[in-house]
Write a structure and sequence with these properties.
The complex is a heterodimer of chains A (647) and B (370).
Chain A: E1 7-9, E2 21-24, E3 27-35, H1 40-54, E4 57-63, E5 78-86, E6 99-102, H2 105-111, E7 120-124, H3 130-135, E8 152-156, H4 158-165, H5 173-177, H6 180-191, H7 197-206, H8 211-230, E9 236-239, E10 248-254, H9 255-270, E11 274-278, H10 285-292, E12 299-303, H11 307-319, E13 323-328, H12 330-346, E14 350-356, H13 373-378, E15 388-389, H14 396-411, E16 414-420, H15 421-425, E17 427-431, E18 451-452, E19 458-459, E20 485-487, H16 502-518, E21 527-529, E22 537-542, H17 546-558, E23 564-568, E24 570-572, H18 578-583, E25 587-592, H19 597-606, E26 611-614, H20 623-635, H21 641-644
Chain B: H1 19-32, H2 57-68, E1 79-83, E2 98-101, H3 107-117, E3 122-128, H4 129-135, H5 137-146, E4 150-156, H6 191-197, E5 202-207, H7 211-223, E6 227-233, H8 245-248, H9 253-256, E7 257-260, E8 267-268, E9 274-278, E10 284-288, H10 308-314, E11 324-331, H11 337-349, H12 356-361, E12 365-368
Parallel strand pairs in B: 1-2, 1-3, 3-4, 4-6, 5-6, 7-11
Antiparallel strand pairs in B: 5-11, 8-9, 9-10
Classes of the chains: A alpha/beta (647), B alpha/beta (370).
InterPro entries (chain B): 2-oxoacid:Fd_oxidoreductase, THDP-binding, TPP_enzyme_TPP-bd
Pfam families (chain B): TPP_enzyme_C
Protein name (chain B): 2-oxoglutarate ferredoxin oxidoreductase subunit beta
Chain lengths: 647, 370
């Protein structure tokens, strides 16, 4: 919903004597929907950039089909981009749009059900041809047959006006038509008072080798803006004031971008070359793309022949002293499992990024899910523990990547970083950190023997652990006198030689577990948001549900109820105080985009009767729905003796 | 650190970010003295008990490699041996170098990451016919086409030894084993043909028991810049004993072995009775030397850019090993992957400030003032 009580201010006088009013809103959710060839993602990203530079808080939800170009004008080919922006800080891309821009009948049909009654539909009337209507099963034109009476509909000949605006450019009809997304962006930029210079600069940069295309897009963009200013179809424009944010320098950033930059920063702060071994996979490929552009920071990217070679090469590079990284999504993790076991056994630093998507198998490649948690925890043969870290927002992917690298380097272990499709493609304003404030990840390579043979000659013991961290020394090839052999066979304690000794295997298995468990002492206590400190019900989440859960908690608190939000960044090991924290609450609700994987872990670890609330729709939770679920729990929680008794 | 007078590029990677690795190496030299390059075979041995079956061909290869490696003048610290799974893959444990005994089939991938990020190292892969051609076939062909600087030793015993005797991807058709009591059905790979088909820049073949021939092929492979594949026929005396006797037996070996010597005519057999000539379809065939004109006999040229000739050579042999060329099939120069990767990094660095703060900020920022 838009602001409850919009305040109308007298507007400026537009050319032609038209008086337009300006309505002030506190937030808006816009969904742009069109054919996958219509450039909706680009349009959405541009609107996002304009909105970010204007200073609103924002959150985005791109939603596109796995097919690159499904048949034009069909329902499977619909691609959409939802943007929520506000004059205050927000946590989600919005439960439902206030405004739906439909570039064709398919886009309208696929998205109308999400638009609450009274919402605004802006439709390209030129695309509502009998042929296009028939493709999606409309018997009559919904723009004319009254079926949209419950909504405000503005039918605009976007295509025709774009062609008209470009008629003198010499571009063919087909090419000129492709600029209709920029015409639409221009119109929206006028409607919401967005700054336009950034988009003009972007188009000039994007098409610098095709100046005529740049000029056409800019002309269409300006024509759309001017159309808004002059047309009678839109009598109102909207103002959403900048959101108060902490002072600092900001940029707009997507999760995959932030994650990639976090890895570059980790390499720089560790003083190590970053080596990425990766095989392209949706929705993780953009990390490979981004990192491949940063060779000047000593980042080596290797597009491997398969997922296994991706992790194998990264592990090989780690053996050589690099920060080895491999990026993938769930199906790729399945393929990497054996090599992950090798990384656990060889105790080398390695960051494994899983940008989760809908599963199982190929599943829903472009949709989001959190269903790889148990795979990350247990998806290997043998007792093969490894730390698991999950970012909570697109910008947080940066910090999570640094944290994953920190733990990998300090504890000499593979670390699983669980992002997801929603974080990967979603974007938000991000406070650009100062380099000197980033953690120092310097590592010490082993350069001299740490033990002595029976005859007293110094020797290097590759599995002689640091008593504090239980990490083994990292001696890279090339280091004089430190030759040693590692591998997947069980290693003898300290010497690292092959050992089939039962007691040694028992010891080593427990040591590997203790090393990972011990990281709990090196991470912050549980992150609890319980404003009054006396909530009886807590909602616990991990990863990208942070935003929707947070938004739900705000709603609940606005209704006068009390609720605590607990969020886990470190999923393995969990914070040392988590059991005690959970014990403070009468009820614990755990919403997840899977069938209850964290809930299973919490129940097993802490014997807490966690109430699991799950959904696997390929989309983030809606805050209102979550709030309703949690409110029911709060309202059905009776006072317990400990909190309600008077004795 | 010392710079060793050998063929491998031991210049440290030039990126400033690799400085910490360079520093660690310098520190180790400062405390433990210069790396030694004047080594003997015994310097290559470890204190680990070698645990192959008595009589295994792997012992012979291990001895040959330990004797040969010192002649390269590379310090042990600058060598890394990566292996997969199988009998041969225990090799690293017995070599006093850096090593990784990894997982089944993946050694070329692991070695690729190591070699691509550390061009200063001499990287070796030890693998077997099952490891390299069955479970790891994909990694092998991609390593070969990429031409990363490493040397792959493929011990081919034409059987699965460590799992106790199933047929392998190089076993002859009809092989009766535990898993194929009525004989195997699948056609075997010829590893040399496969490698040449993948455009490998160096492909050689040697016999475990032929110390001289093996050493010569190893030397050329080690000196080659790029990925070198050496197929080593290796006898498994437990599960496939005598697999190469046709070539080893002095009474039959010379008849069926075609020694490959660069620049020499391909004449072989007792008294040079047989030779290799071109056939009518662009391939090669065996002929009797006294039946052809000397000018028709093919003169071996391992440096031919077009792999067709080397491939044709590899097709002369049959599954039962008659007419098996031994030696270096192909040795051509092409840019190596690791060098090109280093060059791209270097190119990216010129003209870039390498300013992390600027990278994090990107092109589009706005400032919120207090």
């Amino acid at each position: 919903m838009t602001a409850l009580e919009p305040s109308t201010t007298p507007g400026s006088s537009a050319p032609g004597g038209l008086v337009k009013s300006v309505v002030e809103l506190d937030r808006v959710v816009i969904r742009l929907a069109g054919d996958s060839g219509d450039g909706m993602q680009l349009t959405g990203n541009r609107f996002t950039s304009e909105t970010a530079s204007f200073g609103n808080d924002l959150s985005t939800l791109p939603n596109f089909p796995a097919e690159i170009r499904a048949p034009t004008g069909t329902l499977p080919g619909v691609s959409s981009f939802q943007l929520h922006f506000a004059d205050h800080d927000i946590m989600t891309p919005g439960d439902a749009p206030d405004v739906l821009v439909a570039m064709n009948p398919a886009a309208l049909k696929a998205n109308l059900a999400d638009l609450p009654g009274g919402g605004l539909v802006i439709a390209d009337s030129d695309e509502f041809t009998p042929r296009n209507l028939a493709k999606v099963g409309y018997a009559t034109n919904p723009l004319e047959d009254g079926s949209l009476d419950g909504w405000q509909v503005v039918a605009v000949p976007l295509t025709g006006m774009t062609l008209e605006a470009l008629k003198d450019t010499g571009l063919g009809k087909k090419e000129a038509e492709r600029s209709k997304n920029m015409f639409t962006l221009g119109l929206l930029s006028w409607m919401y008072h967005r700054p336009t210079e950034g988009t003009v600069r972007f188009l000039e940069r994007q098409f610098r080798r095709k100046p005529e295309i740049a000029a056409a897009n800019i002309a269409a963009f300006r024509a759309g803006y001017n159309y808004g200013e002059t047309t009678e179809a839109f009598a109102v424009s909207y103002e959403i004031k900048p959101a108060p944010m902490a002072p600092g320098r900001y940029r707009n950033i997507s999760g995959n971008q932030a994650l990639a930059l976090g890895l570059v920063a980790a390499g720089q702060r560790a003083g190590l070359p970053v080596f990425l071994g990766a095989y392209p996979i949706t929705p993780a490929s953009d990390i490979l793309h981004e990192l491949s552009r940063h060779k000047s920071f000593g980042v080596r990217t290797f597009q491997a022949e398969d997922e296994i070679a991706g992790i194998g090469s990264a592990l090989g590079a780690s053996f050589g002293g690099a920060l080895g990284v491999t990026t993938t999504s769930g199906p790729g993790v399945s393929l990497k499992s054996e090599a992950l076991g090798l990384a656990v056994m060889t105790e080398l630093p390695l960051v494994v990024v899983d940008v989760q998507r809908g599963g199982p198998s190929t599943g829903l490649p472009t949709k989001t899910e959190q269903s790889d948690l148990l795979q990350a925890m247990f998806g290997r043969n043998g007792e093969a523990p490894l730390p698991v870290i999950a970012p909570r927002s697109p910008g947080d992917c940066f910090d999570a990547a640094l944290e994953a690298a920190r733990i990998a380097l300090k504890y000499r272990t593979p670390v699983m970083l669980l992002s997801d499709g929603y974080l990967a493609n979603g974007a938000e304003p991000w406070a650009v950190p100062a380099v000197e404030d980033l953690p120092d990840l310097t590592v010490d390579f082993a350069t001299e023997p740490n033990g002595a043979a029976a005859d007293g000659t110094p020797e290097f013991l590759p599995y002689l652990r640091d008593p504090q961290t239980l990490a083994r020394p990292w001696a890279v090839p090339g280091t004089a006198g430190m030759q040693h052999r590692i591998g997947g066979l069980e290693k003898a304690d300290k010497s690292g030689n092959i050992s089939y000794d039962p007691a040694n295997h028992d010891l080593m298995t427990r040591l590997r577990q203790a090393k990972v468990d011990g990281i709990a002492a090196d991470i912050p206590p549980t992150d609890v948001d319980d404003p009054d400190g006396d909530a009886r019900v807590a909602v616990i989440g991990w990863g990208s549900t942070y935003g929707p859960i947070g938004a739900a908690c705000r709603r609940i608190r606005r209704s006068g109820r009390k609720v605590a939000q607990i969020h886990l960044r470190h999923v393995n090991p969990m914070p040392a105080d988590l059991g005690e924290v959970l014990g403070r609450y009468d009820r614990v609700v755990c919403p997840e985009m899977n069938l209850g994987q964290l809930a299973l872990l919490l129940r097993a670890r802490y014997l807490v009767d966690v109430q699991s609330h799950t959904q696997v729709r390929g989309l983030p939770f809606r805050a209102a729905e979550l709030a309703a679920v949690v409110q029911d729990v709060i309202d059905s929680t009776t006072p317990t003796a400990s909190t309600g008794g008077t004795q | 650190m010392t710079t060793s007078p050998h063929v491998h590029d031991l210049g440290m990677p030039g990126t400033p970010i690799d400085a910490n690795i360079q520093q660690a190496i310098a520190d180790s030299v400062a405390t433990q003295g210069e790396k030694q390059t004047a080594l003997k075979a015994r310097d290559m041995k470890t204190d680990q008990e070698v645990r192959w079956c008595p009589g295994c061909g792997d012992y012979v290869i291990l001895n040959a490699v330990q004797s040969f490696l010192p002649s390269l003048g590379i310090a042990r610290e600058d060598m890394v041996i990566v292996s997969g799974i199988g009998c041969s893959s225990r090799f690293p444990y017995y070599m006093n170098t850096y090593g990784m005994h990894s997982i089944h089939g993946r050694a070329p991938a692991i070695a690729t990451g190591l070699a691509a990020s550390r061009p200063d190292l001499s990287v070796w892969v030890v693998t077997g016919d099952g490891d390299a051609l069955s479970i790891g076939g994909n990694h092998l062909i991609h390593a070969l086409r990429r031409n990363v600087n490493m040397t792959i030793l493929l011990f081919n015993n034409r059987i699965y030894g460590l799992t106790k005797g199933q047929y392998s991807p190089t076993s002859e058709v009809g092989k009766v084993t535990k898993s194929t009591p009525m004989g195997s059905l699948d056609h075997p790979f010829n590893p040399v043909s496969l490698a040449i088909g993948a455009d490998a820049t160096f492909v050689g073949r040697a016999m475990d028991s032929d110390r001289k021939g093996l050493t010569e092929v190893l030397r050329q492979a080690a000196e080659h810049e790029g990925t070198a594949l050496v197929e080593i026929y290796q006898n498994c005396n437990i599960f496939n004993d005598g697999a190469f006797d046709l070539l080893k037996d002095p009474s039959t070996g010379p008849m069926w072995t075609i020694p490959l010597v660069h620049g020499q005519p391909l004449v072989f057999g007792p008294d040079g009775a047989s030779c290799v000539v071109r056939d009518d379809f662009g391939g090669l065939r065996i002929a009797e030397t006294n039946q052809v004109d000397a000018s028709e006999i093919v003169v071996h040229d391992a440096t031919r850019e077009d792999p067709s000739y080397a491939f044709a050579l590899s097709r002369l042999s049959s599954q039962d090993l008659r007419y098996t060329p031994m030696g270096v099939f192909r040795a051509v120069r092409k840019p190596t992957y690791d060098r090109m990767m280093a060059d791209q990094l270097e190119e990216a660095r010129t003209g870039s400030t390498g300013d992390l703060g600027a990278l994090l900020a990107g092109n589009d920022t706005w400032t919120v003032s207090a």
